[in-house]
Design goal:
Blueprint lengths: L10 H12 L5 H14 L4 H8 L3 H14 L1 H5 L19
Length: 95
Amino acid sequence: MRVAAQVVLTEEQRSELSAYARRRLVALRLVERANIVLQAAEGKQDQEIAAALELGRHTVARLRARFLQHGIAGIFGLAPQVGLEPTTLRLTEQE
């Protein structure tokens, strides 16, 4: 069995994530993401978190990796995305 990377939170991060996890007027996705990171910081593995939150293991693993790489911005989806660079549509003049 693979062991997931350890998540260590600062007191400020823990406080911010706990606030999101308790809020009722934020997107459900943000509440789930905050709960994933908080449980990961408690030392739980991806499969255990996924079962508790009724999510896929890969979803939990992907979010853990995004948080480790980008911090709290990663759970908001504000982190740079992997993929092709956006292209600019160029209009050419026709003669």
